[in-house]
Amino acid sequence: MRTITLLSGKGGTGKSSITASLAVILSKKKKIICADCDVDASNLALVFGLKEDSFKEWVELSAAQKAKFDYNKCNLRKKCFENCYFKAIDFKNNRPELKEFGCEGCGVCELVCSANAVRLIDVNNAKIGYAKTKYNFKIVSAQLKIGESGSGKIVAEVKKKVNQLANEAEIMLIDSAAGIGCPVIASVTGSDYCILVAEPTPSGLFDMERAYKIVKHFNIPSGIIINKFDLNIEYCKKIKQFAKDNNMKILGKLAYDKIFIKALVDMTPVAEISDTQKKSFNRISEKLMRELHRK
After folding, report:
1. Are 136 and 37 in contact (CB under 8 A)?
2. What region does 179 belong to: left with phi over 0, alpha with psi -120 to 50, or beta?
3. Can you list the domains of the chain with their CATH numbers?
4. Coil, strand, or helix at residue 239?
5. CA dist 49 to 11, 45, 133, Å?
């Protein structure tokens, strides 16, 4: 199974919309499975018309730890309270109490407590599930709970679940989070090919360049899709020059089109409701397949 990851650096470039349409086009030629690795704000399933109750199962996950106090042992010396870097501990009613959303599970409180009254325990901080789209392929999605950490570990669990459900799938298509943080790195790791989705703006170019540094660090072949290219021809040229300088293919250019908005409102991949966009994504998929065969 070949793994293709879409990333952008900047949010709002249309990455999830593009992932969804590319998935639909590829599924007509190959056996595929999708992974929504934006676990802080997973919404790829919505583009396929799926809602939370569409998922076959939701399983609780633990990818973090939090402090737990044993008040029978506590000697009230306040060392945990005084040494907590994240200020996650209050001292109320003559005892330490953990603030909601505060603890990062760093373990300092456990180290400084001479009474051994603090220990770290595993907490269920996310859930993972899967569903079958009406386009006859599966999607795996996970949701990190509000204020929780460990997004990179949850991404690893999503990819693990995909491999369990792959059932002879030829392509895993990953929709990564925006930015260049831990969940993006976890998404990119182990990929066979990366697609950078860029928009022709100063921030779009800058953030794409930063995302490319991750791809380059892992020595993964990559190409670029320029979305809304006609909004700023000058920056479109700069993105093309960046691709040329780094020996990257421009896999496709998508014009600004309000049909994308309608597609999102209708919870349908845009390639399914627009012949123009369907042709564009067919061309992109053909170029992508040629690139994969070269690698």
Report:
1. no
2. left
3. 2-50+133-294 (3.40.50.300), 63-124 (3.30.70.20)
4. helix
5. 21, 7, 8
- Read off the pLDDT of residues 237-275 as tens digits, 9 standing for 90 and up: 999 999 999 999 999 999 999 999 999 999 999 999 999
Q: Distance of CA 288 to CAs 26, 124, 195, 227, 294, Å?
A: 10, 38, 9, 16, 10
DSSP helix/strand/coil, 225? strand
197-243: pLDDT as tens digits: 999 999 999 999 999 999 999 999 999 999 999 999 999 999 999 99
- Using the CB atoms, write b or e for 148-181: b if 16+ within 10 Å: bbbbbbbbbbbbebbeeebeebebbbbbbbbbbe
Spatial separation of the C-alpha atoms in residues 162 and 33, rounded to whole Å: 7
Residue 114 carries which DSSP code?
T
